[in-house]
Amino acid sequence: MARLKRVLLSPRSYIKSILLVTIIYTIYLSTSTTTSVYLTTTQSKLNIYKNQLYQKINHQFNQWYYNILASDYDFFSDSNFQQQLTAIKSEKLHDENHKLDLWNLDDSFKLPLSVKVPNYLLSSSSSSSSSSTDEKPLIQPFDPRLTLSVYYNYIETHINKQSHDSSNDLKLPFHWSDWVDFSKLNKYILNPLKTDLCSNLFDLSHDDKLNEDSEIKSVDKYCQFMGNTNNDNENKATKMLGYKIFAPAHAQTGDNHELIGKSYLYTQAPSPKRLVFLTNTNDNYQFDIDNYNVNNVTNSILYNEKLTSDLESKVTKENEQSSTLNVLSSYISLIKNSPPSLLPTKQQNNQNNQNNPNDNEINSHVIDIPEEYFINDPRSIINQLESSNSQLSNSEQDFLSSIKYSVDCNDPPKYFYEAKFVKAMKENWHGEHYDWRFFNGVTIHNAQQQSIILHRLLKNYLKFTQSNNLITWIAHGSLLSWYWNGINFPWDNDIDVQMPIHELYQLARFYNQSLVIENVGTKHLGNNKQQQNAGSDKNEEFEFDGMGRYFIDVGSTITHRTKGNDNNHIDARFIDIDTGLYIDITGLALTSEQSPDRYDDLLTINQNSAEARQKLDQLKQNQKDGNNNNNHSFKNQQLKIYNCRNNHFSSYDELSPLIQTVVENQPGYIPKNFMVILNDEYNLESLTKKNHRDFTYFNNFNLWLNTKDVSNYLAYKHSPSDSSPEGNNQAYSLIKFNKLSKSDHINLLNYNVLMMKEYLETMNFTNYHNLELNQLLKIGNYNHNHVNTNLSNTSIYRESYDLFNYYRDNYKLGYSLRPDHFINFIIHDNSRWDYQLQVDDLIKLQKQLNDDPQQQQQQQQQEKEQQN
User: Fold this and answer.
1) 366: which strand partners?
2) Do residues 188 and 195 lie in contact, with contact meaning Cβ atoms separated by under 8 Å?
3) Best exposed site among 142, 238, 325, 550 by fewest CB in 10 Å?
4) Boundaries of domain holding 806
């Protein structure tokens, strides 16, 4: 076995040694040449250039080393490979064992976009003789097809009325039960005999084994049992549920966290302040919520007849007993008959937030961030708002109050809370990646669901920020995953983005506590049609896109720009309300925090000027006087270095201009010197090493594949005796994988259907990403050698821009690579397909519980015992 290792690994070590000598010699020649070329350059600038050159060469060396024995097949252009793959896909789609997994790759599959509307929601049913199908349950099933259809139809009906009376802005009713699945609360709501779940289920204080080493919060600090209360001060939802959750619970079991979050939303959580409906263009609809501070279930579709008063004219009558709404048809009808242009200005994209200084088409590919966007000056914001001549909106008033609170708060409390698990739970750390209010179970073990949610999260965040002119870019692990193939790592649980502090304030001012709704329909616009108004081209056909809903939550102390007490590293979140997964949003600002030593060389770049020498003298004097805060603040100001509240630093030169790229098939932005940023945060090996955790990167597929899945194929291909302990070694596995032939690759996809699905879903995009990355690396190299050149005027920039336009026009830029979460869910769960059947089941359950509430109590006790 040891001999086998030497035979396999020695050649690589030999090659590595040769490459290392070559690299060292190349660096020597390069730096010598650099010295002669840059004789007029200061020593510090030369050091920076050498460092960047070293990073570039070292990166190239690592790429050579990890790819030296790898095969290099161009499957994207290989017609024979593509024909074989098409044949395999067709075969699997006709295989009953696999067709369900591949439904979104079946062009003939008819999406279930229509939902049966219960008779009790139609106005005619209340006036006609009642029948069994007209019975109205206490609660109704959750289905975004119904919710969005009702809201689209309601908005369309009222926009024309509103356009004739601009003084009467449309406000929407809202309750969380129309937007989040509360089915796990059904048995507690419908049971007339209320059980004290606070003490019987949520209280873990008496279970020493379960709460060992965990921070358990006293149940009375977040839960109150109400029983069958008739207290007029309690809202209807609290009375129906029998208890209320009014605060996060800290460490809990996973099952309990689901109930706790849903109970809070159902009974106590305030409504969003605003609903933002995205469209297939850069226009969107924005409506304030009526009485958003009040949680009132009577504002739901089930109880609020205002939402359904005109619904009957919109439904499709299949027969006398069945009426349906099609969510895509409702969306198309809205944007064609009542486009956003008919709305008052403030209910379209917020015109007060036209931040992007590069608003023409060519410059949208490059964004020069104004340096003042990194200046944190909350008091000037307070003065501006307080002296405003126009009346502040509700959102602006709340923003002003929040900024005042933040400025006066010396010890900020923790703002964001996650679904933290008790340590006794296996893999308890997973709960940290979910917002406690929207937690709906761990998704990381379902790779398909996880990839769908994260893909849709980023798609809609980028769409939202683009359409509302907010400058932002991907960061940290999300930037690293983009570098590899443009899509999220399969092991990631969240997404990271950054924005200047100015943009964070804009996000908080206009969109804090907003619910963003995905555009249900999309169409391939191409060329310059993305600048058209929604619905302007009535001849193009729409395709279904998705029904995601995302909650924007900005922290309460964003004026604090240093680590402080470590309670609030994250400034804001963009949260998927189906699962609780989120995007972490952090703002960058100029602060008094000490910046890393790697920026010190920048201090003397301009030492030949009198002004620079004077500033350096002042800096040295501050340091001599021991005035560290002033010292760091002055230094950061001179070097243009900014940081977030978790002390991640970036220089202005590293960030700006932002370069447009494509992330998960969506237009987005990355920092100009992304290679420098990634090297400083992760080191160069992270950009080249092809093994991480349980995954191996396959160049020929442009994907991270589960190492065990590929090893299983190799064992299947050969024999059990071929699998040895060496197969668990990453280096050994990589050598075996590098030897895979063309036929091995096609057979691997045939062997593993989900792997084939992933390749087919991402193939066009990841191929484009490789081409784009090569162009962006050239731009990065050009930046190092032509510091003062306007990037948008260069031929190398034009090549990148043309490539972007070509992909946009020919490969449906902006389309989702993955299916909608809810549609995928109901296709795999037939019980959720028919809405009327779910209503009937609820009515039956309601009758059953009314007849025998004791049985439900016994069942709840059994569930608690099983959980313990």
Assistant:
1) 659
2) yes
3) 142
4) 2-77+661-810
